[in-house]
Specification:
mainly alpha, two-stranded antiparallel ribbon, elongated
């Protein structure tokens, strides 16, 4: 068996035909890689695709809106939701207000791309847009606040109930108000101030 293998290797290494065979095999392997694996790799890298991105935004926003731990203490349902004093304090000390203020143009642009048609749409899309930025450096101050926050926060309450989603929800109301102020045409006349 060893002699047969050595004869094949001799033939492949010492003849032009052998070099052509080796070249052809390498070419076939490369072609297989680039046609099969590269296509799959591109599909995986582009996830979530645009088709599913909006669904993920809606689900994320729905989950955040269902966070009952802040319903009465940080925001009040006054049609529309309004930040309470505790919500305003959390917005300020968490760095959420600073994050929105420093990145307002970007947030407003992203909201505009979503083409909200009603104040409700603005409120809902504000949540998803802010959630999408939580992996960016602009969110680091907020994440550091959450990681190192004390057990209780004066004027806010028990910090055990405060999560990143709580802060996102408070930030979304703050962003919503900026967007609606810039787009009063979205507010129906019967409710306009």
């Amino acid at each position: 068996m060893d002699t047969v293998l050595s004869h094949i290797l001799d033939f492949l290494g010492n003849t032009a035909a052998g070099l052509l065979i080796v070249g052809f095999v390498v070419w076939q392997i490369a072609a297989f890689y680039f046609t099969r694996f590269k296509k799959t790799e591109k599909k995986v890298e582009s996830l979530p695709c645009d088709k599913h991105r909006e669904h993920l935004r809606e689900v994320s926003a729905w989950i955040v809106k269902k966070d009952k731990s802040m319903a009465n203490t940080l925001m009040a349902k006054l049609s529309p939701y309004q930040l309470t004093d505790a919500g305003k304090k959390l917005l300020e000390i968490s760095g959420g207000k600073l994050c929105v203020d420093q990145n307002l143009d970007m947030f407003m642009s992203e909201l505009g791309k979503q083409n909200p048609l009603t104040p409700y749409d603005v409120e809902e899309k504000s949540v998803s847009i802010i959630l999408e930025t939580k992996q960016q450096p602009i969110f680091n101050q907020i994440k550091n606040f959450l990681y190192y926050m004390p057990k209780t926060i004066e004027g806010v309450g028990d910090a055990a109930d405060i999560s990143i989603f709580t802060v996102v929800n408070v930030m979304s109301l703050y962003l919503r108000d900026f967007y609606l102020e810039a787009h009063p045409e979205l507010i129906p006349e019967m409710t306009a101030k």
